[in-house]
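S1.2 Input.
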Amino acid sequence: MMRSIILGKYISVQGHYVGETGNGKIQVRVGEKTFVGKPVSYTKAA
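S1.3 Output.
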């Protein structure tokens, strides 16, 4: 599953969902790198 995370004020990353950390952040993998950040909130379309 693809997820988007926010790394900083102007930087976001989209990649394959890896897991969740204890503090509410999630991990995504892009190629060989794994990034940790706050998940982007979204709403599902009707």
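S1.4 Remarks. The mean pLDDT is 92.
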